[in-house]
Description:
3 copies of one chain form a homotrimer.
Chain A: H1 3-28, H2 34-38, E1 41-51, E2 56-58, H3 60-73, E3 74-89, E4 93-106, E5 111-125, E6 128-138, H4 145-150
Parallel strand pairs in A: 1-6
Antiparallel strand pairs in A: 1-2, 3-4, 4-5, 5-6
Amino acid sequence: MSDMEKRLKKIEDRLALEDVLQNYYVAVDTMHDVEGIIDCFTEDGVFDLTGLGLSRLQGHDAIRAFFTGVFKDTAHHSHHVTNFRVKSVGEHDATARGYVIGKAEGKAGEQVLVYCYYNIEYRRTAQGWKMTLFDEGALIPFGDQIDDLHGDH
Amino acid sequence: MSDMEKRLKKIEDRLALEDVLQNYYVAVDTMHDVEGIIDCFTEDGVFDLTGLGLSRLQGHDAIRAFFTGVFKDTAHHSHHVTNFRVKSVGEHDATARGYVIGKAEGKAGEQVLVYCYYNIEYRRTAQGWKMTLFDEGALIPFGDQIDDLHGDH
Amino acid sequence: MSDMEKRLKKIEDRLALEDVLQNYYVAVDTMHDVEGIIDCFTEDGVFDLTGLGLSRLQGHDAIRAFFTGVFKDTAHHSHHVTNFRVKSVGEHDATARGYVIGKAEGKAGEQVLVYCYYNIEYRRTAQGWKMTLFDEGALIPFGDQIDDLHGDH
């Protein structure tokens, strides 16, 4: 690969890694597309919300069960992604970090507004980059408001 | 065009499409630059706020009249653009989608804070990409707060 | 440099200029990494918060003193960067503008939420792009809430 092509590929990877995150939140904000969420993770992918006082889940079945519960209790989602940056990218793996402002409204009218970070680990697969880890935590601590919408799933 | 140049052009288009949106909001947040807004639309461009319970406007004159009214009633704007992604891009047309957190303060002191999405359709012109459609709606429903600032124009 | 390489370099510069801003906020949000902040500025860099009713500081020592004070009084930071766009880029200098939603919580429990813009001037150095000016102001005016956390340093 020429030097120019290496430089081009580096930019393409950066944009593709952000696309995976954007696709994840597109699905999260549909309020129904569980399979769209699952498709962003490798089969052994980890979804870790211990930084929010919630669970650490591994694998498609566990993540699917979690979001099935979330979508049952929540009426509206709006996840505003900011500060995305790639920390490392290699032939097979990559890491990134970013922020999200998460606004949600429960079916019982609960209002949630949170300021969070996430650390992401990726693997390059035949179907493009997938997340092997999505690890989210609070930048500004919040009390138990999120439990009402996302807890006990 | 070489394969390398096609890949480069794809990235350039992606960035240029986001620039049009950013230029639109630069003008919207000046509180006066109606012509800067108009310049982001094709002559037959549609500005559709039916998703916000407001009007669907077509053409420069209608859009100009709307923003003239908005700027008359509104003291401050702050539109924070996130989650921008290109959905399709061809030789002559493109589509994109994204979010915006819109904060506004009316001249009478009204405070508005909304979480919205927009779908954009673009046409490539001799003056670069222009919007043929800007279609905005609420991610988190809001009541009639926006009517005070943007209604009846 | 070939035309293709010039076009590639333009994109690389754009991404690198945003990286400097992102690195700045990574440090600001650690609540301790004063040297990480300093590293984003040239030795003669200006940090101008007069648009927020605060000070205009010049040079590493003055900026270091400011953030040492901020970190002493503040428990949590969350700066959500949006609307970043490069306004000009040359061989040695560049300018950019963008927005930030700043959420902070003081050690005494104070809550701050602000909607701001920044104008940035950069210089290309042997260590990459550095900020010669970071000039921040309010998009939506706020009262004296920020004084509690960032004032009198």
